[in-house]
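Inverse folding, one chain.
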């Protein structure tokens, strides 16, 4: 299944040929010769290897209007040759996305989970989501080439949750190892806001922008950042954890928002926040004041990161993104007051799928780097 199965001498030619086919657009041998810069016999040998590995197919000849002679054959990357899995392990739900090798979604599943669920209970529901999403696409675990999962907290490179204030019984859990016991493929575990930042750069409002701060704003606040187009995790995976600065009030900001106007006890804090935004939209003075205070605290944390990394773009995601009409102006006003060079601010269009979609992108990156050697 991997390019490592071909000889070291052939491997670079196989990789460059595969790279030219990765957009799944069928190409002729002549087109591939031009796009790779390789000789025709070399490309023929590389295609033979890729067909043998099952990732490229020799399709029907290309029709050539007005031309005589045997038509050229077409070669196509087979994204259906394998699948990747993206997981969002959150406080209230677990989202599983199954995609092919170009990232096209094959199935999606969302499984509710109680906020107070133990770590083992939450992990059992993750396994349930995996079974359901595979069944939804008529696949089994043997089709998986790589998987990635996003979760709340600081995560080390081995997939251990170093610290999580949100999920019970989560700090210290070797989530990567536990998922690897359930899946027959490599598994990467990452902070959820980091993966959401990756998703925005891949398919969201940050496409084509290399210096980005992503802020996950809902019943809790978190952040991830891209520098030079690459995820910046920091030395210990704690980059973006500005909520640790108590004077920024990020820990209290969302609670203040929901409790200032409504008694939100016993209800999902994201739902409560949406009711506050709706009241502000309708002109309720107390709700407007609460939104302004929330925006003030949110922008203060954003400014701390902006002044450090000077991003071109700040993306606001999470459930707060649904209230862009009431939250954007006060956030941008505060940033203009605090920042030497206020960045452009955009609201995420990925809604609740950002983390799982970023996990899919992370899994595809693993396939590209470690299996395809691109």
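Residues assigned per position:
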């Amino acid at each position: 299944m991997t390019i490592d199965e071909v000889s070291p001498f052939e491997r670079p030619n196989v990789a460059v040929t595969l790279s030219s086919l990765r957009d799944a657009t069928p190409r002729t041998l002549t087109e591939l010769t031009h796009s790779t810069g390789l000789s025709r016999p070399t490309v023929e040998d590389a295609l033979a290897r890729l067909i043998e590995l099952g990732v490229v197919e020799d399709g029907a000849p290309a029709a050539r209007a007005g031309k005589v002679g045997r038509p050229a054959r077409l070669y196509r990357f087979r994204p259906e040759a394998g699948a990747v899995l993206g997981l969002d392990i959150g406080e209230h739900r677990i989202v599983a996305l199954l995609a092919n090798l170009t990232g096209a979604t094959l199935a999606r599943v969302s499984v509710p989970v109680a906020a107070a669920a133990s770590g083992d209970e939450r992990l059992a529901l993750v396994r349930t989501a995996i079974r359901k999403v595979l069944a939804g696409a008529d696949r089994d675990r043997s089709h998986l080439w790589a998987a990635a999962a996003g979760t709340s907290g600081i995560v080390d490179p081995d997939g251990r949750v170093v610290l999580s204030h949100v999920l019970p019984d989560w700090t210290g859990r070797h989530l990567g190892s536990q998922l690897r016991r359930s899946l027959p493929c490599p598994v990467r575990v990452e902070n959820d806001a980091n993966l959401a930042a990756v998703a925005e750069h891949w398919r969201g409002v940050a496409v084509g922008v290399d210096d980005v701060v992503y802020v996950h704003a809902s019943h809790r606040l978190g952040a991830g950042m891209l520098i030079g187009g690459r995820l910046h995790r920091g030395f210990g995976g704690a980059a973006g954890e500005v909520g640790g600065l108590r004077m920024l009030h990020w820990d209290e900001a969302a609670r203040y928002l929901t409790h200032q106007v409504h008694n939100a006890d016993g209800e999902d804090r994201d739902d409560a926040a949406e009711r506050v935004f709706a009241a502000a939209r309708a002109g309720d003075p107390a709700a407007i004041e609460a939104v302004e205070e929330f925006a003030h605290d949110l922008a203060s944390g954003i400014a701390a990161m902006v002044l450090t990394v000077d991003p071109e773009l700040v993306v606001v995601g999470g459930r707060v993104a649904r209230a862009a009409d009431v939250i954007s102006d006060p956030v941008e006003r505060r940033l203009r007051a605090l920042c030497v060079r206020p960045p452009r601010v955009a609201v995420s269009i990925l809604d609740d799928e950002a983390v799982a979609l970023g996990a899919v992108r992370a899994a595809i990156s693993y396939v590209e780097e470690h299996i395809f050697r691109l």
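The chain has three domains: 3-79, 82-196+354-371, 206-349. DSSP finds eleven helices and 15 strands in the chain.
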